[in-house]
Amino acid sequence: MPLARSATVLGAGVVGMSVAIELARADVAVTVLERGSVGGGASHGNAGLLVPSHCLPLARPAALLDGVAAILGSDAPLRLRPWQGGGELSWLARLAAACRPGAWRRIAPRLRELATESIGWYSQLAAEGPPDFDLQRSGWLSVFATRGAFRRGLADALRKERLGVRWQTLRPEDLPSAAPGLRGSFVGAILHPDDWALSPDRLMNRLQLTAQRLGVHVRTAAEVAEIEYRGRRATAVCGPFGVLPLDQLVLSAGWETERWLRRLGNRGGIWPGRGYSITVPGGPLKVPLNVVDRHLVISSPGDRVRATSGLDVGLASLDSDREQIEKLRSAAKSLLPHLTWDSPLEEWAGSRPMTANGLPAVGRVKGWENVLVASGHGMLGMSLAPASARIVRRLITGGQAMPRS
Ligand SMILES: Cc1cc2nc3c(=O)[nH]c(=O)nc-3n(C[C@H](O)[C@H](O)[C@H](O)COP(=O)(O)OP(=O)(O)OC[C@H]3O[C@@H](n4cnc5c(N)ncnc54)[C@H](O)[C@@H]3O)c2cc1C
After folding, report:
1. Separation of 260 CA from ligand 1 center, angstroms?
2. Does a structural domain hold residue 402?
3. Which residues have C-beta atoms less than 6 Å from ligand 1?
4. 403 in any annotated domain
5. DSSP string covering 70-123
6. 33 sits in which H/E element
7. Which residue has the higher pLDDT, 377 or 74?
8. What are the residues whose beta carbons fall under 8 Å from the beta carbon of 45, sequence distance 6 or more?
9. Most buried residue, 20, 148, 333, 386, by most Cβ within 10 Å?
10. Are 94 and 268 in contact (CB under 8 A)?
11. Whose CA is nearest to atom 15 of ligand 1?
12. Are 306 and 292 in contact (CB under 8 A)?
């Protein structure tokens, strides 16, 4: 396949910007079109953890049972919101299909491999010089309040050990020195020492600067309204910026990617998974925390502390964002009471693009010669984006592609 001369990337989240950089490094002329600002979507409000240890997908038989309970419970890890048009049933069906016994055994090594490759990519970027984005090997500490949850955590740690994920247990009496300031009663903890962290906003700023240095044309306030096509080729994108002819098109519009796939006669199975975060001054934490029984992650990007939660699949509201934020605040206050949760720097709600089986959708769009998709990274978009970008680069530049997820 001849080398593509140019590519248009729809969406400037961590995925779109990583794709733009990879393509520009391969001498492809890239334009990124972003409706708002660079990194203004899910790539802004997240915890900033790079977690090869988090490679067991949601879609496992145990998770399905938890998920069914979750539909009923209001404090569950995964909650299905009423879906406009009844789409939640279709998502559940896909989740159930992805829960076939053993399916996760194929998915987990792949997620770990992509996350590990991405950490290498970020490390190389950081080594190229400033501006810094607080990349560090932070580890990730999961703390458990109940014996049942701890038992399940240990079983998962053993499964992941077979994939090379290192871990160690901590006793409750180790926690004051491992996680200073953490309040609550815990029966045990598991440390994954090979997980990393970064500051999402600083990363996005760095990706934008790097892309621009490489000659990428990043257009903000440029919402794509239509794709024009002839036969099996997309020929142009249209919006307030006019009509831009294109060679290759990469759809990386976060959870909204599904809309474009449907317009092109495909179903990507990408759903919005709503999440929440509250950011306060303080930190750094000695180690980012996964408070398992409360379904809460606390990280410390730069000189801030951020609590994140929520995996509400669907759009229409069960609870309002406000109610979810208040639940998050109350949990964060009880866990780290010395921080100023009542006067935060930011409260955020937004949607990440989820697939039912946990694997991102990266590859050529069926039936189209020059359209690719890179989306559906779910809970792991920061962790996986660079490796996905390399797959896109290989597909567009005609190099050997990795097998499609
Ligand atoms: C609470 C929470 C915590 C998380 N924590 C982590 C974590 O610790 N580690 C991790 O790896 N992942 C985490 N994630 C997941 C991660 O944030 C996402 O997977 C990732 O940010 C998705 O990136 P994206 O580029 O696909 O989407 P986005 O960042 O949402 O970017 C999509 C972009 O496309 C633009 N766009 C959409 N439609 C158009 C259009 N028509 N025209 C132009 N532009 C358009 C949007 O404006 C947006 O900027 C978390 C997510 C949440 C919600």
Report:
1. 16
2. no
3. 10-16, 33-36, 40-43, 45-49, 223-224, 252-254, 256, 275-277, 308, 310, 350, 352-353, 375, 377-383
4. no
5. HHH-SS-SSEEPPPTTSHHHHHHHHHHHHTSTTHHHHHHHHHHHHHHHHHHHHH
6. strand 29-33
7. 377
8. 200, 275, 276, 277, 308, 346, 348, 349, 350
9. 20
10. no
11. 379
12. no
In a domain, 404, yes or no: no
Q: Confidence band (pLDDT; 50, 70, 90) for 57?
A: confident
For atom 41 of ligand 1, which residue has the closest CA? 224
User: pLDDT tens, 141-170?
Assistant: 999 999 999 999 999 999 999 999 999 999
Name the least confident of 89-98, 256-265, 380-389.
Answer: 89-98
CATH number, domain at 102? Answer: 3.50.50.60
**39-68: average pLDDT:** 83
| Ligand 1: residue whose CA is nearest its atom 20 | 381
The H-or-E segment that residue 68 falls in is helix 61-72
Domain boundaries, position 364: 6-397
Q: Per residue in 98-120, pLDDT tens? A: 777 777 888 999 999 999 999 99
**Tens digits of per-residue pLDDT, 184-235?**
999 999 999 999 999 999 999 999 999 999 999 999 999 999 999 999 999 9
- Asked if residue 405 is part of any domain, the answer here is no
SS3 124: helix
Task: Please tell me the residue having the least CA distance from ligand 1 atom 52.
Answer: 46
> How large is the average pLDDT for residues 263-279?
90
Write the burial class of residue 313 (CB in 10 Å: 0-12 exposed, 13-18 middle, 19+ buried). Answer: buried
The residue nearest atom 49 of ligand 1, judged by CA position, is 41
Closest CA to 27 of 244, 310, 216: 216
For ligand 1, mutation pick of 22, 43, 112, 346 (most atoms within 8 Å of CB): 43
Ligand 1 centre to CA of 353 (Å) is: 7
